[in-house]
Amino acid sequence: MTRFALTVEFDGAPFFGLQRQADGPSVQQCIEEAAHAVTGETVTLHSAGRTDSGVHALAMRCHLDIEKPFEPFRLLQALNAKLRPDPVAIIGCEIKPDDWHARFSCIGRSYEYRIRNRRAPLTLEKGRAWHIARPLDADAMHEAAQALVGNHDFTTFRSAHCQSASPVKTLDRLDVSREGDAIIIRAAARSFLHHQVRSMVGCLSLVGQGTWGIDQLAHALEAKDRAALGLNAPPEGLYFVKATYPQED
Amino acid sequence: MTRFALTVEFDGAPFFGLQRQADGPSVQQCIEEAAHAVTGETVTLHSAGRTDSGVHALAMRCHLDIEKPFEPFRLLQALNAKLRPDPVAIIGCEIKPDDWHARFSCIGRSYEYRIRNRRAPLTLEKGRAWHIARPLDADAMHEAAQALVGNHDFTTFRSAHCQSASPVKTLDRLDVSREGDAIIIRAAARSFLHHQVRSMVGCLSLVGQGTWGIDQLAHALEAKDRAALGLNAPPEGLYFVKATYPQED
């Protein structure tokens, strides 16, 4: 048995999320079926994060165990050949020790959320960003976001379906910057609650439009109440960008 | 009669090009039909460049004449409302003097060509870049490209369907740079021949793979013969990025 770590890029649009679902296609199902076609083995994919329906990944980290010997590069090529034409690509593949776990060994997760802030509808970036026509003040969004950085009870920003044992998490980074008519929000933490990034971004968009004052985000956090949530941002702007492991980088 | 200059962004994938075609949908047809729906007038769209089927634009410049008075911002909003759900967006609209012409007043055109250079197939950038799996040497490509800069007979890089009176053009810029696993080729000239950018990029890809030596691009240029063309790059990597006019910028 060999443990292979995969780095996976995918377009989330056609999927019901990364994790296997009873009611629709998932990235996990695609990769497990490709692995079965390549190896003849029934494998289970484990991943650093679970992404919602429509959320994208630039570099999700996953692992699977395979009995047959494979050179990592050959496995990568064979999986990609079987994954076509689904918009899922294995962009890295390496052998890891048996105690390395894509989810449990992961010590950091980073997301980017992409907003296009302009009057005109999106063309090339349709399904790749959240389109907001009203002008956003990115500086005010960044200032407000800093109230969420640190160790807090994030109940306000947690989905009712969240399976985490505790709503207390440490948010390491929540940066908002404008790049032309794009606004990029970068979030990093050891782990996130279900819907946490989209919930934080939704509230930041209200601050950016002036609907919420800069202090209102801190008040929503302190409320520890899902009813204090302003807005949950749509999935198409969200990208899983990095999983960090000890002794990497 | 008022002349309106439009700045247009579009995803070229579903279109048979910018210009009206007898056999399929075009960007011109979409905008003319939207303008008719808004104004009740039959208008003709003129554009800085003609793009092939599948080629994208980030900021194509066009103009049309309208009899009814319109505030530019209202016209922009009304056109965008009628253009939905086609992937065409009016991102700028301004009134110009009657002698301003999107095509004939244009003194500079810029294109970008995007290559993703990696083993894995594309997911999020599918249809937005040319996927080349074999490693490319961007420095060699840039060096070879400089032989094309200047005033030359570009017959080798000209489509058989090109309607330009002369194959002699002045290429102001042809820069190749690597950004991670992306290779970006930036081309600027007063005007280009039909297929010129894609023909130049196709040959540069052969230099990048080592199939052609650095000097071979100069030899192909000197041949002044379409048969000396190495390869015509596919349309999906090409973006029209800028049209320049006197007294702008």
UniProtKB/TrEMBL annotation, chains A, B:
Belongs to the tRNA pseudouridine synthase TruA family. It comes from Aurantiacibacter rhizosphaerae. It comes from the Bacteria. PANTHER family: PSEUDOURIDYLATE SYNTHASE, TRNA PSEUDOURIDINE SYNTHASE-LIKE 1. It is an enzyme of class 5 (isomerase). GO terms for biological process: tRNA pseudouridine synthesis. NCBIfam families: hisT_truA (TIGR00071). The keyword Mitochondrion does not apply. Homodimer. Formation of pseudouridine at positions 38, 39 and 40 in the anticodon stem and loop of transfer RNAs. This is tRNA pseudouridine synthase A. Its EC number is 5.4.99.12. Pfam families: PseudoU_synth_1 (PF01416).
